[in-house]
Design goal:
Order of helices and strands: HHHHHHHHH
Shape: globular
GO molecular function, one term: sigma factor activity
Family: Belongs to the sigma-70 factor family. ECF subfamily.
Organism: Hoeflea halophila
CATH architecture of the largest domain: Orthogonal Bundle
Number of domains: 2
Structural class: mainly alpha
Pfam family, one: Sigma70_r4_2
Largest sheet: none
CATH superfamily of the largest domain: Winged helix-like DNA-binding domain superfamily/Winged helix DNA-binding domain
Number of strands: 0
CATH topology of the largest domain: Arc Repressor Mutant, subunit A
Distance between the termini: 67 Å
CATH class of the largest domain: Mainly Alpha
Helix content: 55-70%
InterPro entries: RNA_pol_sigma-70-like, RNA_pol_sigma-70_dom, RNA_pol_sigma70_ECF_CS, RNA_pol_sigma70_r2, RNA_pol_sigma70_r4_t2, RNA_pol_sigma_r2, RNA_pol_sigma_r3/r4-like, WH-like_DNA-bd_sf
Number of helices: 9
Length: about 190
């Protein structure tokens, strides 16, 4: 019976790096979709981010946030691509416009479509900030680091985005969430106590 085989430190480090990176991919893709606004472009953006991260893994500082590091790479790659193109065509194939013209069967789908439209109408810096804080769950400090701005700037952008979303969606209070006046009796009948 021989001694157990020792695994080289480099192999363990590469395995740990890969495992951490894979755990971040779903939220990384969601962030990419919010920036690129098209799933195919978002997938390309995530793939490019993973390739760059893998190639530069020696620059990752163990003990720091893999998530923040990857989000920063993705964000930088997105804006680099935008600068190269010179301008953005948000819906060249008419996919988004086609989805807006389709009437969903449920109120939730309509509300989601309204929200997506409102989110898309925000300035890029505000949309990015509210997605980082509200959807991706980053702290203000992490979001500021990813965006390369001061914490106060991120807080201001998030606040302005929230106010603008409320204005666009005509939200005045908690009663504006959930079923509308027409649907409320049906929901209350199906789910007593709500």
């Amino acid at each position: 019976m021989g001694a157990p085989e020792t695994i080289p430190t480099e192999t363990l480090t590469a395995f740990s790096f890969k495992r951490e990176m894979l755990a971040v991919l779903p939220s990384l893709r969601a962030f990419a979709v919010s920036l690129a606004r098209r799933h195919d472009r978002a997938d390309d953006l995530v793939q490019e981010t993973v390739m760059k991260a893998w190639g530069k893994q020696e620059s990752f500082q163990p003990g720091t946030s893999m998530r923040a590091w990857l989000f920063t790479i993705l964000r930088n790659e997105f804006y680099s691509q935008m600068r190269r193109k010179g301008r953005e065509l948000p819906d060249p194939d008419g996919v988004f416009a086609g989805n807006l013209a389709t009437h969903p069967e449920q109120y939730g789908k309509l509300d989601l479509a309204d929200f997506k439209s409102a989110l898309d109408s925000l300035p890029d810096d505000q949309r990015e900030a509210i997605v980082l804080i509200g959807a991706s769950g980053f702290s203000y400090e992490e979001a500021a680091e990813i965006a390369g701005v001061a914490v106060g700037t991120i807080k201001s952008r998030v606040n302005r985005a929230r106010v603008k979303l409320q204005e666009i969606l005509t939200i005045e209070g908690e009663s504006d969430y959930g079923p509308d006046e027409t649907s409320r009796p049906l929901v209350n009948k199906a789910f007593p106590g709500r």
